[in-house]
Design goal:
By secondary structure, the chain is an alpha/beta fold. Helices cover 45% and strands 12% of the residues. Strand 1 (42-45), helix 2 and strand 2 form a beta-alpha-beta unit.
């Protein structure tokens, strides 16, 4: 016997309410999805230098996360769990390349995200370092395209402001590909930054030329200034360690650098902000030479509020320190509109 279904006014009211709630829920879900589509592109930058350039090009049109903090050494940085999340959720990852940030590159390659991975620094043809000097314990004071050891690309490409312009162009193109509707904004900001970097490049050249020719020799903690030296006509006369700060100089290496400094007769040598200055201080003391009062920014921009808290300011600060310590005449950098 079939049961007769009775439809009462109350049951019809309840059914109507349930249908309305279901429709409202679907509408809300669709609304949330539409909002998500309207979110800013998520861009992750590994180094502080790339993060600074990306922020200037992307402006308010992107959501930028910089993994490394000012003063952090990318060569030896060990990723933390939060870094994995940033990389997995990113739409675009901007990294230097040439193995500047080995820990983060390894993590990035292993991440399950679908982000485009852009090696910004690798747009620049690298200087090649003969690794046999590293293995023999000698400071790599010269670069070679051919050597007995493994050829290692020098990752410190931003030392030249002209190289930084090439990096800006790569960042611009990557952002346009990610968010084509913001092409005009990215292009305009990149053009403005390129103009500033062009002026910076000319200014650094002028400043270095004020140093007496026989004093244009740079001695630093690690080999991070080859691009700077080649771009602006100052020789890299010696370093404690090679292109990676993972290396530990031996007592023999320290002593060889001391003897070398005595022979070349530079007025001062330089510590760096991302490396413990103890050893280079020892070198200065044993060589009987001044340690420049202002440390150089090598692998990172400075903390907010410092004289090197952007790429342009770090190059300006480095140039001032070098010029004043080596006997040149420093003139402040002023942008022309």
């Amino acid at each position: 016997m079939k049961r007769k279904i009775v439809s009462s006014p109350i049951s019809r009211l309840c059914l109507g309410m349930l249908l309305s709630l279901a429709l409202f829920s679907c509408t809300q879900q669709n609304s949330n999805r539409n909002t998500a589509k309207g979110d800013k592109p998520r861009v992750v930058a590994t180094s502080t230098i790339i993060a600074d350039l990306a922020q200037k090009v992307g402006g308010d049109e992107i959501q930028l996360t910089g993994i490394l903090k000012p003063g952090t050494d990318p060569h030896v940085y060990e990723p933390v769990p939060a870094d994995s999340r940033f990389l997995e959720e990113a739409d675009l990852i901007l990294y230097n390349g040439y193995n500047l940030e080995p820990g983060l590159i390894k993590l990035m390659k292993a991440s399950g995200g679908k982000a485009q991975q852009l090696a910004v620094g690798e747009v620049v043809k690298p200087l090649q370092l003969d690794d046999s000097r590293l293995k023999s314990g000698n400071p790599p004071t010269a670069l070679s395209h051919k050597g007995k050891g493994e050829v290692v690309p020098d990752p410190h490409v931003w030392g030249s402001a002209e190289n930084a312009i090439a990096m800006v162009n790569v960042i611009r193109d990557g952002l346009i590909k990610l968010s084509p509707e913001d092409r005009e904004e990215f292009t305009q900001k990149a053009s403005q930054l390129t103009n500033e970097l062009t002026q910076l490049h000319s200014w650094v050249n002028q400043q270095i030329q004020t140093i007496p020719a026989d004093k244009r020799k740079l001695v630093t903690t690690h080999d991070a200034f080859q691009y700077y030296g080649r771009a602006y006509g100052i020789a890299i006369a010696g370093t404690l360690i090679g292109i990676s700060t993972e290396e530990q100089p031996s007592a023999q290496t320290v002593q060889r650098l001391v003897e070398s400094i005595k022979k070349i007769g530079v007025p001062a040598i330089f510590a760096e902000t991302t490396i413990n200055p103890a050893l280079i201080k020892t070198v200065a003391q044993e060589a009987g030479i001044n340690l420049a009062p202002q440390q150089l920014y090598s692998d990172s921009i400075g903390a907010k509020g410092s004289n090197g808290d952007s790429y342009i300011k770090m190059i300006e600060a480095n140039t001032r320190s070098i010029v004043e310590a080596l006997g040149g005449k420093y003139t402040p950098f002023q942008l022309k509109k």
